[in-house]
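Thread: Newbie trying to understand structure tokens

Hi all, I'm a second-year student working on a class project, and my supervisor (Dr. K.) asked me to get a predicted structure for one chain before our next meeting. I've only ever worked with sequences, so writing a 3D structure as a token string is new to me. If someone could post the tokens and maybe explain what I'm looking at, I'd be very grateful. Here's the chain:
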Amino acid sequence: MKARLVISALLLVAAFAIGRMSAPSGNEAADAGESANRKKQALGTKAAERRVESGRESKSPTPSNWKMIRERANRSREELLDDLLATLRASPGSWTYGNWLIEHLLRTDAEWTVGRIKAEMGRIPEGIMSEWCTIDPERALPFLLAQPAGSDHAFDPRFGGIHFRGMGAKDPEKGLEMIQGLPASRRGGLYASLLGGIAGSNPDQAFGYFERIVKSGDLPDKDLPEALRNLAGAAPAQLVAWMEGRETPLPDRAKAELISGLAYSDLEAAKRIYADIADEEKRNAGFYIATQISRKNSDFGECVAWLEANAPEKMREDLKGNALSSWAHTFPDQVMDQVRRYPWILGSQRSPEIISLLKSRGEAEGLVEMLGTMDAEDGAPFREKLVQAGVIEETPGEFASLDRAMLKMAKDPEETMMLWEALDPGKKEQLFLGASDMMQSQPPELLLKLCQGVSEQTTGKIVPQAVARLAIMDPAKAADYVETMPDGPAREAAIKNLHSNWSVDDAAAANAWKDKVAGSS
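---
Reply by user tm_fold:
Sure, no problem. This is what the structure looks like when written as tokens:
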């Protein structure tokens, strides 16, 4: 669903920005524009909120895209369809022209466009179906729902891009009637999307439709969480009262989804419900509550205090990190102040992001001043982060990170190896424990050299993987390394990986070597 919403959002933004170059009538264009405005005001779904959190908003089209649209707008529909098919297959970085093509062709002759796309591609992309259901649901839904579900699951509402958000905004009664006319097996998610459309365009009617659907017994239990999330922005008080008045308790999964919407419309109610759900449902719900607390308070300590008191310990640090990122970009001018007040921020998961933000604002000097007040032991990890961020220079003879050590090793292996071997074992352990995921993409032979002298507890998974990669390039070197390894789980895993990869090119040699090392064990 998230991918569909991202595509749909991009399509709508581009279409409205272009000015409805092919809108059939003034009234329809006005209706569509009003619907878009209402959707912007309504609370988004979880996927929409995550786009905001990660900064994945639509970007303004580049001049070259506008030029392309102007030059090609008068082409025949066949030529435009050829362009669209090429765009769909190429998946270019910029979709401005592709977005315009989709809307233009769907508004010009949707059935012909959709039929031709399916004939050429063997399917109808979810984004095409989703956009058609948004801009012209009264034509799109009967056509798409009439297609055979069978082997092409794109026409099954449980998959694909079919939704009733557009119908919910335009004609809720007709949408409800259409869904109720479908077999129960094909209604998956459709009630929830219908309610989402109603909530965005007619929030006063949303809860009434929800009650009707629930009382009819047609809303599957598995669709209830999404329906509650979609409605939370339109009818928070009514939904909370409905939940509290139920004869049977609302499942925790449904409560968690309700919280994700309530966090934006009734934060206090969201906090209250959060206290009653099981720990396994608290991660996502806690994310939305913590995000909103962090956006409403310039003192990040308020958010931390709530998480410490309410979030399960096992997910607390992750939730703090997510909230810290949101808070820092909401109150960037407060970040340096808060770092001084709460130094633990510099040891958090998001400290590189915070350091980068302060550096971009020209406030990195404050971090250097803080480093000067720390003793050697407490300041060492912080110093390494400042080096990695380019705030201060690396001390000669030291390594700010394992990635930096690998980089130096590639440039000057002899000198770097001498420096590495002279390092305290505890320092080596610390560098490995703080290594990034990029470490596994480093040359395996160099990585194996750095692993020497580091405990198996720290490198137990790294070494067998590096051996496997080296075996593809040079099995003899990999074999020499494995033979020097002490007995234990890491050696056994390395033997298995080496034998497996070596056997692809030379099974006889691989088997002979395996027998040899087995006999010497």
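A couple of things are worth pointing out once you decode it. The CA atoms of residues 407 and 442 lie 9 Å apart. The chain has three domains: 1-216, 235-326, 460-521. Feel free to ask follow-ups in this thread.
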